[in-house]
Amino acid sequence: MSYRSISLEVANGLARLTLNQPELGNPFNAEFCDEICKVGNELAGRKDLRAILLTANGKFFSVGGDIRMFVQQLDTLPDSIRGWTAGLHMGIARLQRLDAPIVAAVHATCMGGGVALIAGCDVVLAGRGARFGAAYPQIGYSCDAGASFALASRIGIARARRFMLFNEMLEAQTAADIGLVDHLVDDDKLMAEAERMAVQLSQGPTRAYGEIRRLINKAFRQPLETQLEDEAHALAGVAGSADAREGITAFAQKRKAEFQGR
What is each CA distance from 24 to 19, 27, 63, in whole angstroms? Predict the structure, then answer.
């Protein structure tokens, strides 16, 4: 399937998902909200998907919400937002349900929904020149795109609240210090390092990665006994996979495992 606001290429199990409206700053506009849902559906239907590399083209990673679109629809915004977020949120939810780990590479300014999107990724790399902004309160808005969950999960509830309420703009080093960014990389080496990590993950035990993500996303939201039981069922399910058999066999034979994502 072809897209206008997004570029998607899948090869050797690695999906390269690129925000691709550089002339507009890669906004979360109506077209993007619709297409991220379609991308989520497309990737959910693939049997060969092992990892995702999220990047962006242009001067900005993402400017967040499309203010010009909001201005044009001031009188109908509540209804429009319900429609836009239906696609946006379903797309994000479908991406989060995948087994394939998601690696994000942030090369420049990332605002609002863009921050929410990368905060929900499994690994976040950023160039030293990157910047991260809350954005929503500046225009009198609350958040979307999973920002409340993803930011609280990544940097903690109190720090996420402060980031949002005070409309903070974080330099890359500060973002790394609080856990929003996992790896800081020189700007000219960002893409190569993100590609290396994504390829490494694409060669790993994909089903196990998916269960790890889902279990961590449940942490602190249910009783310990429930979490333990979910861990047991997930582990038992994964233990019957071809990759688990290969992992155990390779360990016993003192060789490197060759996982196939099954």
Answer: 11, 6, 8
- Smallest CA-to-CA distance from 120 within 138, 142, 94, 141 is with 94
Distance (Å, whole) CA 77 – CA 83: 10
Same domain, 248 and 171: no
CA distance 220 to 153: 10
Range of the domain at 246: 206-252
- CATH classification of the domain holding 233: 1.10.12
Digit-coded pLDDT (tens) for 77-93: 899 999 999 999 999 99
* Same domain? 37 vs 103: yes
Rounded to whole angstroms, how far apart are CA atoms 61 and 116? Answer: 12
Give the pLDDT confidence of 91-127 residue by residue, as tens digits: 999 999 999 999 999 999 999 999 999 999 999 999 9
What is the pLDDT at residue 71?
86
Residue 193: pLDDT over 90: yes
Q: How far apart are CA 232 and CA 234, in angstroms?
A: 6
Radius of gyration of the chain (CA): 19
Give the type of residue at 8. L
**Greater confidence, 193 or 70?**
193
- Output the six-digit token pair for 170: 């974080």
Which among 127, 24, 132, 35 is positioned nearest to 69, based on CA atoms? 24
Same domain, 198 and 219: no
Q: With respect to residue 31, please indicate whether it lies within any of the assigned structural domains.
A: yes
**Residue 173, SS3 per DSSP:** helix
Beta-carbon count within 10 A of 195 CB:
16
